[in-house]
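Per your request, structure below.
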């Protein structure tokens, strides 16, 4: 049976083991940090006279030379240069020590990133790209930041590339459903274009427009919109018939015209014959040549019935 003294000895041993384990971990971390700094020491030494990073790094280099390797490693991570990622550190050194090599790598990188940006109709000036490269900023981050500036308003030139194509598609879908994209969806469009630039399908936003268009319409029309048709397609036979009778172009008839919308009832759609009759009862029809000719024909027929010859 263990005595109180035995328990104390046991606890003391466990505490000592914990302290030893902690020290071992600390030593391993220090050794790793020192080793890492040793790998970077050439970079540090090369930067001692640099006006941007030199003053801090000279102190680190002096600590290392004096044998305070762990202290030097700890202090290095606190410097501005030590907080840069590896690519940024290497690019900065290369820009100072091997300028021609750096220029060639920068040129090659800029050709690639500009192609990606051009596909999105985004322009980033050379000075900004130079800074991105020097700081080791990856292409994904650059493109994402550039996409955030995409807007339907654009600049002096119309929006082009993938966002420009998406904008044309969205405008067409909005128009085909009786909307004005900028007026009816203006506060959402820029976000849609940016999401398309990041890889989302423009059809996702076409569906949002169609969902808005189906509000208040008969179920049959809503089902056709869900299938990907637009109101312009759904009402086309009636719109063309109406345009012919009213002697106007189909596009001049708004998709929210009450007579046109009446072609589809809650239960079924009108036959073209019934729709023609409805159009002839519309006040607009009486001002057409069709109406005048029909009235003249009717009048002439009545006169003939009474024995008058035309």
């Amino acid at each position: 049976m263990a005595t109180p003294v035995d328990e104390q000895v046991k606890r003391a041993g466990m505490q000592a083991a914990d302290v030893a384990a902690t020290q071992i971990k600390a030593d391993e971390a220090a050794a790793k940090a020192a080793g890492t700094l040793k790998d970077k020491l050439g970079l540090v030494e090369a930067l001692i006279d640099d006006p941007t990073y030199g003053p801090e790094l000279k102190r680190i280099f002096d600590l290392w030379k004096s044998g305070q390797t762990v202290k030097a490693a700890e202090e290095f991570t606190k410097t501005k240069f030590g907080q840069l990622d590896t690519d940024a550190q290497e690019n900065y050194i290369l820009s100072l020590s091997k300028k021609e090599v750096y220029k060639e790598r920068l040129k090659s990188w800029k050709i690639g990133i500009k192609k990606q940006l051009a596909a999105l109709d985004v322009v980033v000036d050379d000075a900004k790209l130079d800074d991105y490269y020097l700081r080791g900023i990856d292409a994904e981050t650059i493109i994402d930041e550039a996409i955030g500036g995409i807007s339907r308003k654009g600049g002096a030139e119309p929006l082009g590339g993938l966002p420009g194509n998406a904008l044309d598609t969205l405008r067409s879908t909005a128009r085909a459903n009786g909307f004005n994209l900028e007026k009816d969806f203006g506060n959402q469009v820029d976000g849609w274009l940016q999401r398309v630039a990041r890889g989302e399908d423009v059809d996702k936003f076409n569906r949002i427009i169609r969902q808005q268009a189906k509000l208040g319409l008969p179920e049959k029309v809503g089902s056709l919109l869900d299938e990907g048709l637009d109101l312009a397609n759904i009402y086309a036979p009636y719109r063309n018939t109406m345009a012919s009778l009213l002697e106007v172009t189909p596009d001049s008839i708004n998709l929210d015209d009450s007579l046109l919308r009446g072609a589809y009832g809650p239960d079924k759609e009108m036959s073209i014959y019934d729709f023609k009759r409805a159009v002839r009862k519309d006040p607009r029809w009486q001002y057409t040549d069709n109406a005048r000719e029909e009235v003249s024909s009717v009048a002439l027929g009545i006169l003939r019935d009474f024995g008058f010859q035309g």
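The mean pLDDT is 81.

Regards,
D.
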